[in-house]
Amino acid sequence: MLPREVLRQIRRLQLKARRAVEDLLGGEYHSVFKGTGIAFEEVREYQPGDEVRSIDWNVTARMNHPFVKKFVEERELTLVLVVDVSGSGLFGSRHQSKRELAAEIASVLAFSAIRNNDKVGLILFSDDIEKFIPPRKGRRHVLRVIREVLFFEPRRRGTDLNNALEFLMRVTPHRAIAVVISDFIGAPAIAGNSRRKLRPQMMLLESLAQASFAMLRQANRRHDLVAVQIADRYELELPALGRLVFKDAETGEVVEINTGDERKRAAFAERQARAQAELLRLLRSAGVDAIQLRTDQPYGVELARFFETRERRRLRG
Q1: pLDDT of residue 75
Q2: What does each C-alpha distance from 252 to 120, 198, 200, 205, 268 come to in angstroms?
Q3: How far from chain centre, in Å, is Cα 221?
Q4: Angle at 108 between CA 105 and CA 112, to 5 degrees
Q5: Contact at 8 Å (CB) between 202 and 246?
Q6: Measured between alpha carbons, how far is 272 from 268 in angstroms, rounded to an integer?
Q7: Which is nearest to 256 in space by CA: 266, 241, 267, 271?
Q8: 15-29 pLDDT, tens per residue?
Q9: Percent of the chain at pLDDT exceeding 70
Q10: Is 200 a residue whose pLDDT tops 60?
């Protein structure tokens, strides 16, 4: 039996996610993600304008007039949420931590999926695979997924995106929608790169420059990969609060920074803006769609814009 407060939190998140699905996304979730293939539906009489290649010659020969095969796109999808539960996700300078926002985004996507009778699976990762829930359908299953994203206690605190993507491809042999929800802090270094990472809790890592670019491309070829980056305001800009001591939530490293120095704050903000731009550039180069969200800003506009962009691209294609 779950504690009453845990149930209340899950219930609040469930209601909030359902409102977002209805008000923001509508039916867009299903329209922008393609099914796994083409399925035969029926044979019907030929009509002017039908593709000649679709004629069923066996039925045509028996009936003495042309019939065509009708196919439809298989619409049953599998959504796999790949959620970062490393130590840096506990940070939040306002009312919500990155981990809590990750749970909310996961909930919106999961409820969009079950609304369309799709399967939902979950991979929680740090620098190890913390938990795997195979894809299934149904409301009870999705509530379990939400509970795990919110309350799971990871064994480790680091981050290894490569390992998570390798595991995704190993346990998900058929094409799926794979949404990686992470702050992209703490990705593993490229082999041979021994440069020390000076990274207090609020610093963004040039994550994908140090993650395996080949692994991202490989995962995106097999699946429809979407990256959702969650950041906090004070990971992008320093508050003017004088000398502060920061402790890295993943490595335990302690760094003292004089946030009262305006030039240091400006340099920090510029470096973080470059890191954000580089992150987007690398994701685009790997063919991965990206959404960048912040804990201090409503996510609805960015999420709706992402779905609208994909819908326009689908219609052009």
Answers
A1: 60
A2: 34, 12, 9, 16, 21
A3: 16
A4: 145
A5: yes
A6: 6
A7: 241
A8: 777 777 776 655 566
A9: 83
A10: no
CA distance 290 to 308: 13
Q: What is the pLDDT of residue 287?
A: 92
227 touches 177 (CB < 8 A): no
pLDDT averaged over every residue in the chain: 81
Residue 31: per-residue pLDDT: 63
Query: Under 8 Å CB-to-CB from 170, ≥6 apart: which residues?
Result: none
pLDDT tens profile 70-106? 765 556 789 999 999 999 888 888 778 999 999 999 9
- Find the angle CA(188)-CA(297)-CA(28) to the nearest 5 degrees: 85
DSSP string for 240-295 = S-SEEEEE-TTT--EEEEETT-HHHHHHHHHHHHHHHHHHHHHHHHTT-EEEEEET
Rounded Cα distance, 161 and 84, in Å: 8
Which ranges of the chain would DSSP assign to H, the alpha helix? Answer: 4-20, 28-32, 57-63, 98-115, 139-151, 161-171, 207-210, 213-222, 233-236, 262-285, 300-316
Looking at this protein, which amino acid is placed at residue 99?
R
Q: What angle do CA 205, 86, 143 make, to 5 degrees?
A: 130
Task: Give the confidence band of 123 by pLDDT, cuts at 50, 70, 90.
Answer: very high
| CA-based nearest residue to 254, from 246, 243, 262 | 246
Give me the mean pLDDT over the 290-305 stretch.
Answer: 89
Query: Between β-strands 224-231 and 289-294, what pairing exists: parallel, antiparallel or unpaired?
Result: parallel
